[in-house]
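**User:**
My hope is that you can spare some time for a protein that puzzles me. This is the protein in question:
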Amino acid sequence: MVYFFYNILVFKIDWILKFLSLFVKQIREELEKRNRSLHQIFSKSADGKFVIWLHSASVGELDQAKALTETIRKKNKNVFIIQSVFSSSVKETSFQDPLADVYFYLPLDRAHAYDQIFSHFQPKVLFVMAWDTWPNLLKKANQMGTKSYLTCASLSSGSSRKNPLIRSLTKASFRYLTGIYPSHELMAKEFEGLVTETTDFQVLGDTRFESVLNKLENKSPNPTFTNFLLEQKDFLSKNKPVILGSTYGICEEHFINYLKKHKDESFYWIFPHKWEETRMKDFISNLEKYGPVGVFSKRNPGDSLPKFLLFDLMGILAFAYHYGSFAYVGGAWLHRVHNTIEPAALGLPVITGPKIYNAPEAIVMRELGGLFQTETESDFIEKFHLLTTDQTLREKMGNGNRNFVVENRGASDKIYNRVFSNAQN
């Protein structure tokens, strides 16, 4: 019965979107893009290979899927990988990654939206990363004999899926899952009452940890940054800047208000989420009241480091954390926090805004004492000041974060061994 009402709701949403697309260009282009990406995949065939479908909600979950895909391909050469994403924040340029054989945007979760995908590719296994469990997708997979697994599974205590109105749908769709593998013991308890006895349930970790560690260990930053580090070697041996990563306007506003209340001797490296000229001009003007400001791409060799250095080049942030004292990670005042694993992997304590409920690693880091989740501007200012002044606290939080990341390496192997020893039987 719950599926009946759910499908009525999806039908109405579908109708509304199609109607609005007649008048709203942005919606029309979005629907066209999604339809185009879906139709293009049928030009390819699995040619008798073992087909695996991985689905990710957004960019972070796609990183989880990539780590798992790398392990699958190392252990099994005769596979055909389908990779779907839901969020438009995943750019089509990401679809050029050769890890998967086809990429596409998941269609709206209508009752028959996936019929052609299953009939054409006949996937044997479906992995849903973290939390994006669309009810009709799981039901269709079950009908077609595809084994479905929720891997790196996360569910926060405040999740809407536990809302009394949605809980019955969550439970109904979860019964189609062959296995649910939470990312951490602290996540496992959130699934109580939602998992049937026949569903394989085991904490196997989060593949995103190894994705981040592999990146930090095997890839290199923007060469301009490498040259900068060599030039500033002496300075960085004595000073550890505070890293502000993925900042939005509201993050920058809170930081300015922190500076109004507290004077400190810290240096700051700031990485705006988007370099918007007007916003950056205003931000720089406000920062100049508290010390010299520089823009990374406009520096000249030999220039002394200003108190505030703004980075306007890509491919640097993850590696810059190595030189920091602690990290602020943006996104959590608006939608969801950005990557907190990167600074944690490099032994930094982390401070964020309030919205971390879709980031299980951030939730666990908070519970383990390595992350400050701040709810108000005054709370942010208080915790930020505490981190700038208390070195013992920084070291304790940072060491805990580093241990947390390292201990969670190897999730892909655990998932592969749990699933694929039986998947082909």
Observations:
- The chain has a mean pLDDT of 91.
- The CA atoms of residues 235 and 305 lie 9 Å apart.
- The radius of gyration is 23 Å.
